[in-house]
Amino acid sequence: MTTKYLVYTGLMTAIIAVLGFVPAIPLPIMPVPIVLQNIGIFLAAILLGRKYGTLSVIILLMLVATGLPLLSGGRGGIGVFAGPSAGFLFMYPVVAYLIGLVRDLYFKKINFIVLLITTIVIGAILLDVVGTIIMGLITNLPISKSITLSLVFIPGDIVKAIIASLVGNVLLNHSRFQQLLK
């Protein structure tokens, strides 16, 4: 790892952490709130790729595990990994890796549509379905009800995917940003 990518990884970790300061939107029908940190997870993968994007997410989760209140609502500590949002937290590095993998495979011909479809399928649908299934297991909800509850997150996560894909596409196709990544 070069110093440049160490800085990029730390910067992306900081951006995800700052997004945690935006207050979460609690939902009356489930214990997991709507958060903006997903945009940071998506952007880490889109901008840094599978290796460094995933690393920035893992670093954030390690900082949270040590007790730093970097998740929405000022949550932190090892206990969040056993609570209702544990499935979402454990899926964050997986989502970052998979989106980053597609980004790496299509890096030379990256465009908004590739980023958007990837981010919606992996970042919105996969994250929400698996996260709510694990939430259901932790809170003793039937899997069918958990999957139905995941539909609550989909519209907001599609908007987050559009924002991350748009920002990622503009930056990845900008000549100055491409020089920074070399």
UniProtKB/TrEMBL annotation:
The GO cellular component terms are: plasma membrane
Q: How does it sit in the membrane?
A: Multi-pass membrane protein
| Source species taxonomy | Bacteria, Bacillati, Bacillota, Bacilli, Bacillales
Protein's UniProt name:
Biotin transporter
| A Pfam family of this chain | BioY
Show the stretches that span the lipid bilayer.
Answer: 5-25, 31-48, 55-72, 78-100, 112-138, 150-172
UniProt keywords (A-Z) are: Cell membrane, Membrane, Transmembrane, Transmembrane helix, Transport
**Where in the cell does this protein reside?**
Cell membrane
Gene3D superfamilies in UniProt: 1.10.1760.20
Q: What family does the Swiss-Prot or TrEMBL record give for this protein?
A: Belongs to the BioY family.
InterPro entries with a match to the protein in the record = BioY
Q: Name one GO molecular function term.
A: biotin transmembrane transporter activity
Species name: Staphylococcus succinus
